[in-house]
Amino acid sequence: MVRKRAAMAAAGAVLTLTAVTTGAATAAPAVPTAPAPVAAVAAEEPQPLPNFVGRNRFRVYSTVSAETALKIHDLSGEHRKVLWPPNWKVCTQSPKAGTKLRGGTLELGVVKTNEKCPARQS
């Protein structure tokens, strides 16, 4: 019996295709197949940034590409280290939602999830 397994990338593209033979020792060896074409994810037009304001910081990590640098700072004025993503919510973002960002830097102002975002300053 021959079963096929495919390794999947985060974007859903098939990276490799391997055949695994199980059963009797007399089974014919699997014939190597050409790997499925991989979509050119990097060549695609970047998706517009969603509005992260009010959302959990973990959502940011699961949405933006690895090419995008994140600059995150605590808006409370206490200069706390922003470590555990689920414990923080986004209050400000730059560039704004709808911007198509490939690489570059996404700046986020955050506070603890149980705190209120500070009032915007003019």
From TrEMBL:
Is Signal set as a keyword in this record? yes
> Which keywords fit this entry according to its UniProt record?
Signal
The signal peptide stretch is 1-27
Protein name from the UniProt record: PASTA domain-containing protein
